[in-house]
UniProtKB/TrEMBL annotation:
<protein>
    <submittedName>
        <fullName>Helix-turn-helix transcriptional regulator</fullName>
    </submittedName>
</protein>
<feature type="domain" description="HTH cro/C1-type">
    <location>
        <begin position="16"/>
        <end position="71"/>
    </location>
</feature>
<dbReference type="InterPro" id="IPR001387">
    <property type="entry name" value="Cro/C1-type_HTH"/>
</dbReference>
<keyword id="KW-0238">DNA-binding</keyword>
<dbReference type="InterPro" id="IPR010982">
    <property type="entry name" value="Lambda_DNA-bd_dom_sf"/>
</dbReference>
<dbReference type="Pfam" id="PF01381">
    <property type="entry name" value="HTH_3"/>
</dbReference>
<dbReference type="InterPro" id="IPR050807">
    <property type="entry name" value="TransReg_Diox_bact_type"/>
</dbReference>
Amino acid sequence: MDLEELKFRKLLGARIQEIRKDKNLTQPELAALIGFKDYQTIGRIENGRVTPSVYTIHQIIKALEITSNELLNF
């Protein structure tokens, strides 16, 4: 993994966490909204440890009721 990918993962995760908290959602609540059985995956995404699939990003956008521009504005 190169530095650019790592930087992107960290920024994306931080942005997801920021929006989730602004909407007063917990990690388990967001996980339930997108159909994850394991809320810890949300923590891994928010901490930049995993890169979510395009489909997962789409599900997060829908669950948070935001646009892709809002999510990727970092």
